[in-house]
């Protein structure tokens, strides 16, 4: 899997290709200029081999992205009503683990309001046209409207400040409950540009650009949020959360992630997805 290359280099490569320079000629002139960047090598090799992934690696990455201000490597970020802890960060994929995102009362309040509205996720089976239980996601779930109750509204304001992204660009909060044995198999949260239904989905707010999974109740065992491409597992500790962002809808972001099976107890999470535009 190639890393994304810098916007400047991408722009230059695209301009050179558009001007009719061949990939081997580009490679030679970059080597001569002292480039020994493995990400570039991989992108060029893929381009040469005609891999579609190379196009994605060279596709324009979004420049304005949600995320906290980590200048000066702060241990805490003040968001007005709370001091959020920065527990762990990773560059590629962009992952940040936060502590003290929600109080115990907020976690319990969200669970109580969601519990009575949970439903097992059903999906349409294209083969028979019938509805089936989704084997990839064995949790129960529901969505809150944005600003639906006091806790939801307060949390959404907090996240908008923390992640420096307009509240209106966020989807309504999703709540999931995982019973023992339930899991969420690895997936990407962005909408696959190659799926026929995606253009319709994108009319409302554009692409997803980031996800924050917040842990409302921890199981006794299991239930980590996993990032298989990089071997990362985030423990589902109550009140904490894992943020990750993806600047293009492509696996080069390394944001494949899943919810490992809950082995004992119940896991509850709240997921906030951020779109590139207002989500009406
Ligand atoms: O509950 C999780 O750990 C999890 C894992 C992967 C949640 C989501 N994805 C999601 O809500 O998209
Ligand atoms: Zn997900």
Automatic annotation (TrEMBL):
<keyword id="KW-0560">Oxidoreductase</keyword>
<dbReference type="GO" id="GO:0004656">
    <property type="term" value="F:procollagen-proline 4-dioxygenase activity"/>
</dbReference>
<dbReference type="InterPro" id="IPR044862">
    <property type="entry name" value="Pro_4_hyd_alph_FE2OG_OXY"/>
</dbReference>
<dbReference type="GO" id="GO:0031418">
    <property type="term" value="F:L-ascorbic acid binding"/>
</dbReference>
<dbReference type="InterPro" id="IPR005123">
    <property type="entry name" value="Oxoglu/Fe-dep_dioxygenase_dom"/>
</dbReference>
<keyword id="KW-0847">Vitamin C</keyword>
<dbReference type="GO" id="GO:0005506">
    <property type="term" value="F:iron ion binding"/>
</dbReference>
<feature type="domain" description="Fe2OG dioxygenase">
    <location>
        <begin position="169"/>
        <end position="276"/>
    </location>
</feature>
<dbReference type="Pfam" id="PF13640">
    <property type="entry name" value="2OG-FeII_Oxy_3"/>
</dbReference>
<dbReference type="InterPro" id="IPR006620">
    <property type="entry name" value="Pro_4_hyd_alph"/>
</dbReference>
<dbReference type="InterPro" id="IPR045054">
    <property type="entry name" value="P4HA-like"/>
</dbReference>
<keyword id="KW-0479">Metal-binding</keyword>
<keyword id="KW-0408">Iron</keyword>
<keyword id="KW-0223">Dioxygenase</keyword>
<protein>
    <submittedName>
        <fullName>Proline dioxygenase</fullName>
    </submittedName>
</protein>
């Amino acid at each position: 899997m190639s890393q994304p290359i810098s916007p400047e280099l991408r722009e230059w490569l695209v301009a050179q290709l558009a001007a009719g320079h061949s990939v081997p000629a580009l490679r030679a002139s970059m080597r001569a200029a002292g480039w020994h960047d493995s990400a570039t090598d991989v992108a060029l090799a893929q381009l040469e081999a005609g891999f579609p992934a190379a196009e994605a690696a060279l596709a324009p990455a979004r420049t304005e992205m949600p995320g906290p201000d980590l200048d000066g490597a702060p241990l805490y970020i003040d968001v007005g009503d709370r001091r959020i802890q920065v527990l762990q960060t990773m560059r590629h994929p962009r992952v940040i683990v936060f502590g003290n995102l929600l109080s115990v009362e907020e976690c319990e309040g969200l669970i109580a309001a969601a519990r009575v509205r949970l439903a097992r996720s059903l999906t349409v089976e294209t083969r028979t046209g019938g509805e089936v239980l989704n084997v990839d996601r064995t949790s129960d779930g529901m969505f809150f409207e944005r600003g639906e109750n006091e806790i939801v509204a307060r949390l959404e304001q907090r996240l908008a400040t923390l992640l420096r992204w307009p509240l209106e660009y966020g989807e309504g909060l999703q709540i999931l409950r995982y019973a023992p044995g339930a899991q969420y198999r690895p997936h990407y949260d962005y909408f696959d540009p190659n799926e026929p239904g995606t253009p319709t989905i994108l009319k409302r707010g554009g692409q997803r650009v980031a996800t924050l999974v917040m842990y409302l109740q921890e199981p006794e065992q299991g239930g980590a949020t996993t990032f298989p491409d990089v071997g990362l597992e985030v423990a589902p500790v109550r009140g904490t959360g894992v943020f990750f962002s993806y600047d293009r809808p492509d696996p080069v972001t390394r944001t494949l992630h899943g919810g490992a099976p809950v082995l004992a107890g119940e896991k509850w999470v709240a997921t906030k997805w951020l779109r590139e535009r207002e989500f009406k």
